[in-house]
Amino acid sequence: MNLSRLVRFAGSCGGYKLSRLITSKNPRILMYHRFSRDAERGHLDAAMFEWQVQYIAKNYKPVTVSELAEDLYLKQCTPRNRIAITIDDGYEDFYEIAWPILKKYGVPATFYVTTGFVSGDLWLWPDQLRYLLEHSPCSTGQFSFSITQINTPIPDEQFEAEYWRINHLMLQADNAEKIRCLNEMAAAWIIDLPKIPPKRYRAVSWNQLEEMQAEGLEVGGHTITHPSLARVSMEEARNEIFGCAEKLRQKLGDSIRSFCYPNGTADDFVGSQVKFIKEAGFSCATVAFADTQGHAQRYAMRRHTGSPDRFQFLKSISGVELLGMQLRNHLVETYYD
Ligand SMILES: [Zn+2]
Fold first, then answer.
1. Which pTM does this prediction carry?
2. 311 CA distance to ligand 1 centroid (A)?
């Protein structure tokens, strides 16, 4: 039996409950992005999210990330069965679909917003890229841009692969180069990005955020323009972090808020930027990956993916994923001893 089937089998025999008990003092933070009413690629549908929220409400003590940080780093205690739900970026579908479900079950959450996106100053760059590719020429052509070359037309069956190929290249590029490439594509294909993104890419409004904050939502910071902080200058990183904190204060008042690194892999921020996050007043910060470090670092708290797959969700939330990582580390250490 392979490991995945073994875990599934153990889960059905009460293994998730056992794992929850063993890891009850290792609070998990779950990470979500987009929501839809019905099944849609790249989105978590309302029915599955409701099932997950109900499961969390029944089996855990859900808190915001700042509440969790207060327990861990100020009170230095680790109460049992804590879970924090986080949602990144600031899309309107959180307000329309996810928040009503969270409210229904009394589950708090932390919503990390890109302030320039909420203010209507920009679209998030992955959405710009998708829109540009969707509007690329139907005629045969070969286009050279600063980051890559693109052949048109892009066949429907290759669209997703092409999108993710370029998305990946842009993630590796300097922020300025990425923006230049998006502008080059728009110019070469004579595409005018609408000032306000189409409905499916739209941000929540400041009024909606104010309303949700009054109902218990933690609105956290996610920079102004969502760059990878490791791919901008220190001055730009400082402006992104301070500008975001200032805008949140100005629009939503003083409140304890956490911060979330855009993209959030270990390559998307540098340790020397932590001082900006502290000075800007954020109580802690989260990354977009999980490992055995857990929450050892207040400004790099680990997060697990809030998956649309029920099995993966149970693995993340019950601590099976965490135990698996610990076991793998243990085996590697034993092997190299
Ligand atoms: Zn993000």
1. 0.92
2. 24
